[in-house]
Write a structure and sequence with these properties.
Blueprint (H helix, E strand, L loop, with lengths): L2 H15 L1 H38 L3 H14 L4 H13 L3 H14 L4 H13 L3 H14 L3 H19 L17
């Protein structure tokens, strides 16, 4: 083997594993980081804004899809969890709504809008004890006396609903022929 080729191979191998090359690579990654973060942030806002357009047009399934895409990029985005819950509420899927409101609450404990939505969702699905428990936490956290009083009134309503259950519903007769 020619000495020049040998020196060339050794030099190439040294540069392939040299710390300077690693530093250069790290520098390039760090230099690109702001651009990558800006692109990711743009994608976040695009999915959320698209979800809001679908939501405002009452295209709830499409809105849920967009908000879920947002959550794949930013799993702690509380407004997306809240909007998904509102979509499920609009589609009369209160149990799914409660699930997403609870997810929102885990990322933003004490957020008044999230707690209100969770309380009402629990009340819709008959989970009154959970609704009262969440409302009690919210009242304890509330600083505004007017809002605190409003929460206490809502708690009284929920407790009264539990104490006086609604009368039984008559059995459905649709689709049955005359008795005979």
């Amino acid at each position: 083997m020619d000495a020049c080729k040998l020196v060339g191979l050794i030099t190439a191998a040294a540069f392939a594993f040299a710390p300077a090359a690693a530093l250069d690579s790290t520098f390039k990654k760090n230099a690109l980081r702001p651009s990558v973060e800006k692109i990711e942030s743009s994608l976040d806002s695009i999915h959320y804004e698209l979800g809001m357009k679908f939501y405002n047009n009452k295209e709830y399934e499409k809105a849920v899809e967009s908000f879920r895409k947002m959550l794949t990029l930013n799993p702690r985005h509380v407004p997306s969890y809240l909007k998904i819950g509102q979509c499920w509420d609009a589609l009369d899927k209160s149990e799914l709504a409660a699930y997403y409101y609870k997810k929102a609450e885990t990322h933003a404990p004490g957020n008044a809008a999230v707690v209100r939505a969770l309380v009402e969702s629990y009340a819709k699905i008959g989970e009154t004890e959970k609704a009262v428990g969440e409302l009690r936490k919210a009242i304890d956290l509330e600083k505004d006396p007017a809002l605190k009083a409003k929460g206490e009134n809502r708690m009284r309503e929920l407790v009264a609903a539990v104490k006086s259950p609604s009368p039984p519903r008559p059995a459905a007769t649709a689709g049955r022929g005359p008795a005979g």
